[in-house]
Amino acid sequence: MSDAKKTPVETDVLIVGAGPAGMAAAIALRRSAPEGAKPRVVVLDKGRSPGSHVLSGAIIDPSGFEGLLSPEEIGKLPVEAHVCKESFRMLFGPRKSLKVPWVPPLMHSRGFPVGSLTKIAAYLCSIAEKEGAEIYTGYAVTELIEENGRIVGARTGEKGVGKDGKPKSNHLPQEEIRAAVTVLAEGGCGILTGKLAEAKGLGGVRRQTYALAIKELIEVPAGTQTAGEVMHTFGYPSADGTYGGGFVYHVSETQVMAGYVYSLDYRRPETDPHLLFRRFKASAAVQKHIAGGKTAAYGAKVIPEGGYYSALKPYFPGCVIVGDAAGLLDSLRIKGVHIALQSGRAAARAILAELKDGRGLETYPELLERTRGWKEIKRVRNVRASFRHGTIPGIIGAGMAWATCGAFPFWRLRGFEKPDSAEMEPLKPGAIEKEAAGAPPASPLSPDRLTDVFMSGTIHDEDQPCHLKILDPAKCAECRGRYGAPCTRFCPAEVYRLEEGRLQIDFSNCLHCKTCKIKCPLENIDWTFPQGGDGPRYTRM
Amino acid sequence: MHVIVCIKQVPDSTNVRINPETNTLMREGVESILNPFDEYALEEGLRLRDAGARLSVVSMGPPQAAAILREALARGADAAYLLSDRAFAGADTLATGYAISCAIRKIDPSPDLVLFGKQAIDGDTAQVGPGVAEMLGIPLLAYIRELSAGEDGSFTATVSTDDGEETVEGKFPAVMTVLKEAHAPRFAPLAGAMAARRAKVTVWSAADVGADPARCGLNGSPTKVVRIFPPPSKGGALRVDAREDADAAAAEILRLVKEKGILPQ
Predict the structure, then answer these.
(1) Domain total for chain A?
(2) Interface membership of A195 toward B (CB under 8 Å)
(3) Is there a contact between B197 and A457 if contact means CB atoms under 8 Å apart?
């Protein structure tokens, strides 16, 4: 059947990314179209299997499933627990913490399903497949095809290229897919989406900002914990008022998701988010939840947390952008799954109109604005910027947004202007103190970074060109002098290390989180696609 | 020429853990994959197909094992057959070999070449391929690392042995088991994956292939798994810290190797 490769692949809809947003679009497209006029829907994902590259907390606002799945299907979501007890704690240090007596109701999540988004994405894939969508995993889409001002399809990446850049005996060339509509559902900091947004001016009012989320699944002894109990923390170990917080979710009686989210607008170059995560886990408030446990899985991703003002214009002729790729995230609750699902459904409506009449795709932004999720994003539009001014103003901002349904403050708070001035200095240059001295001792409950990377299951064919391209090696030397090579610390997968003063890139460790692309102070790292099927192999993240 | 490749779906062993209390495999979060050794057998089959042979693939397993057959179709196989029947459950290597040999006879009473991976990564027995050769009455060549077929039904194969390698010339039919040193497996083109999605995987029961129920599954298995346990850790490993001074560490390792007599003098 390899003979078939000469015939061009044509489809009505091409969806790039098999996460929640892409799957919602696929399911809605197949379900809403009348019998006999079902569009062909092709979904491509660079992960090896459905869900391999999907990771989240995750407490999921179930509103996103309504109208998309049947009540029976919602009942069969692969989730073992619902939030039954929640608390917010301010951590003051490794030992001291205080339960926050009152939190704005819009941050509550009692009764929400809490579990693995990897499993939920795989479940959505199975439903989409049953509906007749075609999902192909292990295929990275590496470029969009534009003709006459319109996106008309995409190309997959080559496979079987050696590290010397030459084709190997099993070389597979790029393949072209022509599509009436292309849906970008790449997730946070999507590479194709970023390129398109930059080339076509689809950016929001402010530049997008990201937080790095690091998470472990910890197995705890039976009978010690309660399924459905969740805790959110803020304060320690964030050192300098950087927006960050932790979470502990008991997704079953014996499984705990522990994670730490740290804004990538931090300014101290010595910052090591993985170390912060370990300190978070070592704190008394968290130990209570994971005592006697053992880390069983690990992962990391970036979250687009800029909110309303950073969301992209999600439409370009022939193309729509959904979910995290478009920056659709409630930046107060750090929740995006339900909005991703709603955006996928809104996109499906616009796409069906387009396929029927040759126009209508341009109504997607308007349809998106009518979703409940978008209204939430709008309501908390100023909260993130309030946190830019410190934790206390942030909480005040959150409270005001809740009390006034987002009407106050009615002006746009400063912070995160587009980087059009030379003042943008994401990292403070200066002497780098070695922070590792304060690291908790390595243990089954506090693995070091490399042990964690092993548990992510990530793997890349090492006989391929390094997919993390240093644009100008001279800049790396400059960075080492000014910032002390922060990539060796911010990468949650220990991809970057200094070997006799030279930067060594162990790309096989990569978790595809894109932190390096975002945080390299000299914007000297280009994240390109490794061979499709490579990367993390999450199964229950 | 007709080549039949036998493949197996296995748990991805890089992720398998053993429950320390019950000594059973913890299957949660473990994916099922095409047995890595079988990828090389499939590749040899595909290379012969590139040269004009017809290529069939066969597997035995639960209905979800059709996934690896579709993967084989996506890479270029012509036809796929799945043996799936409760009667096959609990089969040891003898009963598995019997069922597979029945299927092969049904696919083609006189195939030119039957290929297997060297072994499966779950059981590690390397017995099914040789067993099938015996049952089919076809000569066996195990552990091949290279194979080329001539025009006249002859072949030349390179076989790895404990002491080195042998070059074997012969005539088909043959059963061969393939090592990972053979050609790198190819990737399925997207167009191939699309075609494979619509292609037919023939599913056969024990009755369909005319298998004697007494020789299938648990009934036909003279060996039983009595107990599964992780081997006790031997311990006593020497660690040399190379983080500070790699040269000194290398010298230390060399000294230890000499001292312990690890290398033949």
Answers:
(1) 1
(2) no
(3) no
Q: Do B194 and A540 touch (CB under 8 A)?
A: no
Give domain status of residue A140, yes or no: yes
What CA–CA distance (Å, rounded) separates A319 from B198? 28
Read off the amino acid at residue A362. E
Tell me whether A166 touches chain B (CB under 8 Å): no
pTM of the model: 0.92
Phi, psi of B13, rounded to the nearest 5 degrees:
-70, -15
Model confidence over B160-210: pLDDT tens digits? 998 999 999 999 999 999 999 999 999 999 999 999 999 999 999 999 999
Residue numbers of the domain that contains A13: 2-71+119-207+308-379
Give residue A372's identity as a one-letter amino acid code: R
Residue A161 burial (CB count, 10 A) = 20
Q: From the list B12, B29, B191, which residue is nearest A5 (CB)? A: B191
- Is B51 in contact with B155 (CB distance < 8 Å)? no
Do B138 and B170 form a contact (C-beta atoms < 8 A)?
no
In a domain, A139, yes or no: yes
Mean pLDDT for each 10-residue chunk of chain A (541 residues)? 60 98 98 96 97 95 95 96 94 93 82 97 98 98 98 97 96 97 98 98 93 97 94 88 91 96 91 95 96 95 94 98 96 91 98 96 98 92 69 64 59 50 56 62 90 95 97 93 93 94 94 97 96 96 95
On whether residue A239 sits in a domain, the answer given is no
Contacts A–B by Cβ distance under 8 A: 74
d(CA A27, CA A126): 10
Token reading at B197: 């999605």
Q: For B19-54, what is each residue's pLDDT tens digit?
A: 777 777 777 667 889 999 999 999 999 999 999 999
- Stretch B127-153: mean pLDDT: 96
Nearest partner of B101 among B76, B83, B119, B84, judged by Cα: B83
Chain position carrying tokens 């006593």: B236
Distance (Å, rounded) from C-alpha B50 to C-alpha B44?
Answer: 10
Sheet of A97-99: strand order equals A97-99, A85-91, A229-235, A244-250, A255-263, A210-219, A294-304
Percent of chain A that is helix, strand, coil (3-state, to 5): 30, 25, 45
pLDDT at B146 over 80: yes
Contacts of B57 in chain A (CB under 8 A): none
C-alpha B10 chain-centroid distance: 10
C-alpha distances in angstroms, A320 versus A11, A325, A347, A354, B169?
16, 10, 7, 12, 60
Assigned domain for A500 exists: no
Answer whether residue B70 shows pLDDT above 90. yes
Strands (E) across A189-340 are located at: 210-219, 229-235, 244-250, 255-263, 294-304, 315-316, 319-321
pLDDT score, position A448: 93
CB of A5 within 8 Å of a chain B CB? The answer is yes
Q: Which ipTM did the prediction report?
A: 0.89
Domain of A132, CATH number, reads: 3.50.50.60
Sort A459 into a burial class: Cβ within 10 Å, 0-12 / 13-18 / 19+. Answer: middle
